[in-house]
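assembly run, all chains below
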Amino acid sequence: MTDSDASHPSTFAGLAEPGRVDPVRLDRLAEVAVKVGLNIQPGQDLILTAPVAALPLVRRVAVHAYRAGAGLVTPILSDEQVVLARYSEARPESFDHAAGWLFSGMAAAFGEGAARMAIAGDNPMMLSGQDSEAVARANKANSHAYRPAMERITGFDINWSICAYPTAAWARLVFPDLPEPEAVARLANAVFRASRLDGPDPVAAWAEHNANLMARRRWLNGHDFQALHFRGPGTDLTVGLAEGHEWMGGASTAKNGVTCNPNIPTEEVFTTPHALRCEGYVRATKPLSYMGTLIENIEVQFSQGVIVEAKATKGEAVLQKMISSDEGARRLGEVALVPHSSPISQSGILFYNTLFDENAACHIALGQCYAKCFRGGTSMGAEEIRQRGGNSSIIHVDWMIGGPETDIDGITASGGRVPVFRGGEWA
Amino acid sequence: MTDSDASHPSTFAGLAEPGRVDPVRLDRLAEVAVKVGLNIQPGQDLILTAPVAALPLVRRVAVHAYRAGAGLVTPILSDEQVVLARYSEARPESFDHAAGWLFSGMAAAFGEGAARMAIAGDNPMMLSGQDSEAVARANKANSHAYRPAMERITGFDINWSICAYPTAAWARLVFPDLPEPEAVARLANAVFRASRLDGPDPVAAWAEHNANLMARRRWLNGHDFQALHFRGPGTDLTVGLAEGHEWMGGASTAKNGVTCNPNIPTEEVFTTPHALRCEGYVRATKPLSYMGTLIENIEVQFSQGVIVEAKATKGEAVLQKMISSDEGARRLGEVALVPHSSPISQSGILFYNTLFDENAACHIALGQCYAKCFRGGTSMGAEEIRQRGGNSSIIHVDWMIGGPETDIDGITASGGRVPVFRGGEWA
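ok done. output:
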């Protein structure tokens, strides 16, 4: 699961283009985002962050949200060129600074019951040409300032959801060899297909999909594994699971009682690893797009839950800064299972966006855990979550470790092994 | 002086269009807005509200603000279609609700020293087709929620400024008979000329203009009139001035010590009337564009400072709701002098936007007064301002009462009369 787009509303991108985005399916996406993603409640306010370039979707989301009875829809739009103006013109000492007033306001609104939607679609490489020191400082300042709002989301106080709009800047990166209108059309088709909008009744298709994910969750929860053992090329990793962990995926219910789908699309089931119990080595199977930088061929060694060595053939400096964000940034906060046959994996597209790419492969996330991935977790305090092995951090970064050769065993309390994945598929 | 665009950041409009807006003069406008309008200080944050359609100017303002040493520039962009989606789709009971979390956050940011820029340019008639009851309720809720931030601006705690971008929606209204690209080019030329960007050194031109306005202020302050007596077609109005009032205009200095130009453009000198001392009748000389409704041919009777009768040939229902916003909405908060020969008056254009139209004619404003229009006013408490005759309200709405036949006398403490205007010009 990702909330990376939720954590940095001030670093989105672009300018609105009509492009070749099919308006019928765009409207369906808005309807699915509102009814399935958020399940917005009558009278509930909505805070909606998006790049300016995603305005066509923002507008349709506003229409569907108000039709569903939303109180007030407040879009917070960001612009790539304004963000880049900062990196090219601002004084160096200003990068430790964030819009705390805006994030504190959001936290207050969530505290009063507002729902949260993020529309992704900014250029994933927006900041790749900028000074990595300045980028890291700005990201850290943003993460700290955003924390009160982020905790409402990771603590699942309210219904929230992320979906995506196929902006031109994103499409150019995904399909660099196509003319822009074709690139946008291809990306739009991929986004719409992954978001399960192609059938006659997308809302019903999501109900069926959620039921399938629920069956996987029940099987895993029934086994209550102590650990998962991942094997594959460059990978031999044992991921201990937190005490009282619960597998989640698809629809889930926030503390406010609203059942929502935090990610549109989603193909994963996921839970909380034990922050002190990860051993072995792991090789990423896809590049990681982190805050505008592409990190390639990550290889990491864990001992007693903590990263003791981390390398990458590209973007290693950003990787090192990322895992140095705080103590918890070197430990796991999530483990997720996705079969190699998932539709997003089969599309063969590298989206450079976690919302999609994490649904193409099994993955782990460094940083903050999700309280909801414990039995009774949403009513637990931070200290109890920590004692059960839940990690805490200002970051939550997913990266892909699964592929067609991935084998996974579940290790039971008695030390027995149960095949979970073989050759990248559910065993 | 207007802060009407500052008070409703959630009701702006549009989509970005390159149009035929000259990029060289657009960049000059951004530079003037930052250096003359705001005079942004090194390390100072900037909150910038604008319609999405004004994005080309937002981007240039961000560049110039960062070059001048701004800390963090945070744009809050609004979209006409999202606002209209509310009116067409939202539940009736939701209109008494505003984004208090956002406005409270802004107030907190101003309290910590952030500067404030508003870019006007939304379609002035955006809400003219909507239910006036819903519009009035939403405006009232916005005004209440925005009040903590508004008080930082009317109290002049921080440097702030409004300028304008010639959006297509605005241009279509001003030049309904021209094709859109020509309408945008015409409006852009008018905005740029009014903003004094046509000479070789706009920043120096503004210094000279500010010096001229300062000479008028000094002459008026030297006389310390008790009242002004306006005569013209349909008008015979005596506007008592507040005790210890001070004439302002052009550049002025905020409590944070920064000298800024709150309105770009500006041609007026203005002060605070006495809320209990206005007598007679007055006829508006131009239509008033208020929250998306055009109010035409306003005629008002004052007695002991309060409106006892108000009529209009069009939009009278909106006028009546406006002056019923609260007790102070029926009393004056500002009186301003502008010669008929002002460049904006001579352009002959009705802009449907107070920032421009108020600089074409003498005007009065209903509602909240400006504390800075008292000698020592920025350090006075609300009670002292009230005792001296300063009005208090959630609204501040300027409307035009001057024209080529306007005569004004200043009435001195001893009852003598001094000619101030004759035939619409300084006497």
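Chain A has two domains: 3-194, 214-253+261-426.

The domain at 3-194 of chain A is CATH 3.40.1830.10 (Thermophilic metalloprotease-like).

not gonna interpret more than that til we talk
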